[in-house]
UniProtKB/TrEMBL annotation:
Keywords: Membrane, Transferase, Transmembrane, Transmembrane helix. The lineage of its organism: Eukaryota, Fungi, Dikarya, Ascomycota, Pezizomycotina. This is Wax synthase domain-containing protein. Pathway: Secondary metabolite biosynthesis. One of its GO terms (biological process) is lipid metabolic process. Pfam families: MBOAT_2. InterPro entries: Wax_synthase (IPR044851), Wax_synthase_dom (IPR032805). GO terms for molecular function: O-acyltransferase activity. GO terms for cellular component: membrane. It is a multi-pass membrane protein. The chain crosses the membrane at residues 37-56, 63-85, 105-125, 299-318, 345-369. It is found in: Membrane. Belongs to the wax synthase family.
């Protein structure tokens, strides 16, 4: 049976055919001279990075402490970084425009990550990431905006230059650094099923923190239509916990533990479970542990419908409006600009919703797949988004609370820190003084370079055509700075105006004689 006879959309049939023929996906314009991606080119830098990570922690065993091993490690790391960065410059994925774009992200992220781990952190800060052991204790209520500083939350001196914290009183660090098992009374928190509440709680608390069984029981007992629909939409809640963390007593012990340590660090984009983690999107020690039921419900009820609706809007606008513009002799270099303003906003909203939902889908699927590995750190997936988009009121709020932090470490090391250094050099600020302008501009400029570099691989290597992505992220950084200036000006004006206007109350009462009467005069 030929591919053309399969009952599939034409785009799917073409993807299957090109997987065997190497034919280019329509619309893909790879960089001239690049070749179709091979498995060897993809896995070689990953394996070299992993082998180098095996040699990164200090002894034991003593064999890794020699100069020869250090030299070998650095050669492997430098080679891996080179091969990562070379990926989008030498290869493309003929079957997909999106995968070619992702290849650019993987290449630049992987290369800079390797340079960070083996050269910037190691030789610049003398820091080798330690494991972090998390403890989770049940709490009865959902937090109301309470926050507390979290250790290693800045990815820098707070975690790199200070000694590891001591375990809580009454507990001792395990001799095996690979052991991340919690105390027996907390083990149940990391299992797929939810535990029963430890004490009697009110119905309002129960609705907020219900278990899967209590959720089903309440649904069966309550006949109210709106109540039933609300519960169906909300679904089982994640487990409310208080999270505490402390580093282990040292680095990996033995080869098996070292192999596990290297795998965990290589897979941890956000640095979760290690002392080089970046600022947590939760910004609080009060958090939630997602359960399998909760993630399944999120996929079916929330993420799935958003993906389908956003995809339908994107397809409709492309088929009805964009496709005719890109065909024939009247081809437009920028078909998006030919759309009406409402259509541009509609397409932008649909693309944003699709992207956020796709990230959430991937996060939930991996959380479900890895849940049987608990309490291994690989099964620990902190929330990706914790603030609803419609609850965000500023550009800074969106990028700080409403977006994922998968690339935060990359932007911190290669954008935020250089930006802060430049601002301090230009203004004469001391290291203890904040350098927010350099921090914001550095972070967003590095993001602009990363994303434009990636999309360039689908546009025949044209930096001009890739400028749209660069402008978006760079302008977001400027928008945050302008937004902060406006907020400060409004607050300053409001404060001075309140000082004057607050006296109008007493002025009116004095003029009206009320003060005289109150004084019995």
């Amino acid at each position: 049976m030929s591919m053309s006879s399969l009952p599939l959309p034409s785009s799917f049939r073409h993807a299957l055919e090109s997987a065997f023929t190497g034919e280019l996906r329509p619309g893909l314009r790879p960089i001239e001279g690049t070749k179709p991606l091979t498995l060897e080119a993809l896995f070689c830098p990953v394996l070299l990075y992993y082998i180098a990570l095996l040699l990164l922690p200090p002894p034991p065993p003593q064999t890794v402490a020699s100069v020869h091993i250090s030299t070998l490690r650095n050669v492997l790391a430098a080679t891996a970084a080179y091969l990562f960065l070379r990926l989008p410059l030498a290869y493309h994925v003929p079957q997909s425009i999106g995968l070619t774009y992702q290849l650019g992200l993987v290449g630049i992220y992987g290369g800079l990550r390797v340079l960070d781990a083996f050269f910037v952190s190691l030789y610049g800060f003398g820091h080798i990431p330690r494991r972090v052991r998390y403890s989770h204790h049940l709490r009865p209520e959902t937090p109301r905006g309470e926050s507390a500083p979290r250790p290693w939350a800045d990815g820098g001196s707070n975690g790199m230059l200070k000694d590891p914290t001591k375990p809580p009183a009454g507990s001792q660090s395990k001799g095996d650094a690979h052991s991340t098992a919690l105390e027996k009374q907390n083990d149940i928190l990391l299992k797929p099923t939810r535990p029963k509440p430890q004490r009697m709680v009110s119905q309002s608390d129960l609705l907020e923190n219900m278990t899967s069984q209590s959720y089903t029981d309440l649904l069966n007992k309550d006949d109210g239509y709106m109540t039933m629909m609300t519960k169906l939409v909300n679904g089982p809640k994640p487990i409310p916990v208080i999270e505490t963390a402390h580093t282990e007593d040292g680095w990996p012990h033995g080869f098996a533990d070292r192999a596990s340590w290297a795998l965990e660090l290589e897979l941890s984009m956000r640095g979760v479970g290690f002392t080089w983690t970046t600022a947590d999107i939760r910004h609080t020690t009060k958090t939630w542990l997602p359960t399998v039921q909760n993630r399944l419900h999120s996929i079916v009820v929330h993420v799935g419908p958003v993906l389908v609706l956003a995809w339908a809007v994107i397809r409709y606008l492309y088929v009805r409006r964009l496709a005719p513009m890109t065909a024939g002799s009247s081809f437009s270099e920028s078909p998006f600009d030919e759309l009406s303003l409402p259509e541009q906003y509609l397409l932008t909203t649909a693309l944003g919703a699709f992207l956020m939902a796709a990230f959430s889908l991937g996060h939930s699927m991996f959380a479900i797949i890895c849940s049987p590995l608990a309490p291994n750190p690989i099964s620990f997936f902190p929330p990706l988004y914790t603030t609803r988009v419609w609850d965000i009121t500023s550009a800074r709020g969106f990028w700080s609370y409403g977006w994922h932090r998968l690339f935060a470490r990359l932007f911190l090391v290669w954008g935020v820190w250089p930006g802060e250094w430049v601002e301090r050099k230009l203004t004469g600020k001391s290291p203890d003084q904040p350098a927010d302008v350099g921090k914001v501009l550095g972070g967003f400029l590095s993001s602009a370079v990363v994303h434009s570099f990636s999309v360039r691989g689908t546009l025949a290597g044209s930096w001009t055509d890739a400028a749209g992505e660069a402008k978006f992220f760079a302008l977001n950084g400027i928008a945050i700075l302008v937004e902060d200036l406006v907020i400060r000006a409004v607050r300053s004006s409001r404060k001075s105006r309140q000082q004057k206007e607050s006296r109008n109350f007493a002025r009116g009462w004095t003029k009206g004689g009320l003060v005289r009467e109150m004084a019995f005069m």
